[in-house]
Design brief:
heterodimer, A: alpha/beta, Rossmann fold, five-stranded parallel β-sheet, 9 strands, about 30% strand, globular, disordered N terminus, disordered C terminus, B: alpha/beta, four-stranded parallel β-sheet, 11 helices, EC 2.1.3.2 (chain B)
Chain lengths: ~200, ~325
């Protein structure tokens, strides 16, 4: 068991489901799967969804480069302005949208995020992509799929399928942001109805 | 800042930096082929202009449209206001129509405050210039322009203007731009010096968080940015200086004066520029003059303000930020 502090200061008990080496292994596997499906990753562009999706996208790009010997463009796609729940919360600070110089037209865009849950973030990301360019195809890679989809969306590459209850919360920690790599499963602080 | 944006003085440092950072992201939308975000879809914003303005109204309208809001433009000329309708009646009409936000420009100082606090209307009110009082989005776009030029677009994120020396020159007495800028720049940590003929310095200026000088030439060499103001003849009911020529000689910015500024220093002007009087064509057209850039930045700033006031169920400014990680 692992205790960490939540945003509001209360201690939440959380159990690690994946730890540092597991995450590295999982990302290596996803990278190989991308190369296999894209037949070499020639036209692949990785777009991470802030915050942690961007770090994962960068790590995947490094692994893809190791495998293929080619540099894979990485960007980030902030979906805040495209969320369907904007009016249900205070507006959040925007994160960075960074599209690689060559654009997305005709490329295979792999969206990268840490957790796939309701699917609404990915829906927003697809809308955002629409305004930015016209990829040849869009695929989705996630570190954890925790289920409870509210939209007909599924991931092409999944690090770990993690069946959860709505009472549980999944928290991904990455060295770049949190000082260590881990996927934690704990009890949610919010009522299921509020959860997104 | 609470629900409304009435005065630059209402903004805390964190509010102001959040608006500038948000505007930086909004500016990137302008570089895209499709310059539109769905953020305010289904929301109606009314531009309520009791005083003529082209630049500010178009800037707000562009910002509203880029955020997909429905826009109603209301100009007092030729409207029921010229038939004698009061601000209260206009406000109640807008309320009945279900307007989600009001952008107001009025020749009377305090009109936006009255609109926001009287209970006539429930929507957020954004001040687009009231009399000689405030023009907060202008101050924000000026600060945004300075931060971009002096620190850089990316390096500037999260930064204020701490320690920068800004000089504001000209008709301070009639200028809401000067008032708003003094308030905001002080909040952002900059040192502001006002330079003006003694007749154009407002009474009570000693209570403002800035220095006052009557000698432009001594201030120029230590300025990071020099903001020229327009001489507002339409607000002048007396002679405030002997001749245009004398004003121009003492307070106008020409090539020689610009050469005395530090190399990195920029020249700003809120527009419209009166060339030959406050600023020579040589200076206005030089690479150091940011007047055109300020116009483009105005749209980004207004998008940021509209998003932060209207985008959510409560204003983002002065409320704690939420953690973005758990929501998928």
């Amino acid at each position: 068991m692992d205790a960490h502090s939540s945003a509001d200061g209360a201690a939440v008990v959380a159990r690690p489901v994946l730890e540092g080496p597991d995450i590295a292994r999982v990302l290596t596997r996803i990278a190989h799967e991308i190369v296999e499906r894209a037949k070499g990753a020639d036209d692949v562009v990785l777009l991470g969804i802030p915050t942690r999706g961007v770090f994962l996208a960068r790590r995947l790009a490094a692994k893809l480069q190791e495998i293929t010997g080619r540099e894979v463009p990485v960007g980030s796609l902030d979906i805040t302005m495209y969320r369907d729940d904007l009016r249900m919360h205070p507006p959040r600070a925007l994160a960075r949208t960074e599209i690689p110089g060559d654009g997305l037209d005709g490329r295979l865009v792999v969206l990268v995020d840490d957790v796939l849950f309701s699917g609404r973030t990915i829906r927003a990301a697809l809308d955002a992509l629409n305004d930015i360019g016209r990829p040849r195809a869009v695929q989705l890679a996630v570190l954890v799929d925790r289920g409870h989809r509210e939209l007909p969306i599924r991931a092409d590459y999944v690090g770990k399928n993690l069946p959860t209850s709505l009472r549980e919360a999944v928290k991904v920690q990455l060295t770049e942001e949190d000082g260590r790599d881990a996927v934690l499963l704990g009890l949610s602080r919010t009522a299921p109805a509020d959860e997104r | 800042m609470k629900r409304h944006l009435i005065s630059a003085a209402d903004l805390t440092r964190d509010d102001a930096v959040l608006i500038l950072d948000t505007a930086e992201e909004m500016a990137r939308v302008a570089d895209r082929p499709i310059k539109k975000l769905p953020t305010l879809r289904g929301r109606t914003v009314c531009n309520l202009f009791f005083e003529d303005s082209t630049r500010t109204r178009i800037s707000f309208e562009a910002a509203e449209k880029r955020l997909s809001a429905d826009v109603i433009n209301f100009a007092a000329k030729g409207s029921s206001v010229s038939k004698g309708e009061s601000l209260k009646d206009t406000a109640q009409t807008l309320e009945a129509m279900g307007v989600d936000a009001v952008v107001i420009r009025h020749s009377a100082s305090g009109a936006p405050y009255r609109l926001a606090t009287s209970g006539w209307i429930d929507a957020p009110v954004i001040n687009a210039g009231d009399g000689t009082h405030q023009h907060p989005t202008q101050a924000l776009l000026d600060a945004f322009t300075m931060r971009r030029r002096l620190i850089g677009p990316d390096a500037g994120l999260g930064q204020d203007l701490g320690g920068r020396r800004i000089t504001i020159v000209g008709d301070v007495l009639h200028s809401r731009v000067a008032r708003s800028n003094v308030d905001l720049l002080h909040t952002l940590g900059a040192e502001v010096t006002l330079v003006a003929p003694p007749t154009l310095v407002p009474v009570g200026v000693e209570t403002w968080p800035c220095e006052v000088s009557y000698d432009l030439d001594s201030v120029l060499p230590k300025s990071d940015a020099v903001m020229m103001l327009r001489v507002q003849r339409e607000r002048m009911n007396a002679a405030f200086f002997p001749t245009e020529r004398e004003y121009s000689r003492r307070y106008g910015l020409d090539g020689d004066r610009m050469a005395r500024m530090p190399e990195h220093a920029l020249v700003m002007h809120p527009g419209p520029m009166v060339r030959g009087m406050e600023i020579t064509a040589e200076v206005a057209d030089s690479g150091r003059c940011t007047a055109v850039e300020q116009v483009a930045n105005g749209v980004s700033i207004r998008m940021a303000v509209l998003y932060l006031l209207l985008g959510g169920n409560e204003p983002a400014v002065s409320s704690p930020r939420t953690d973005r990680t758990e929501e998928k």
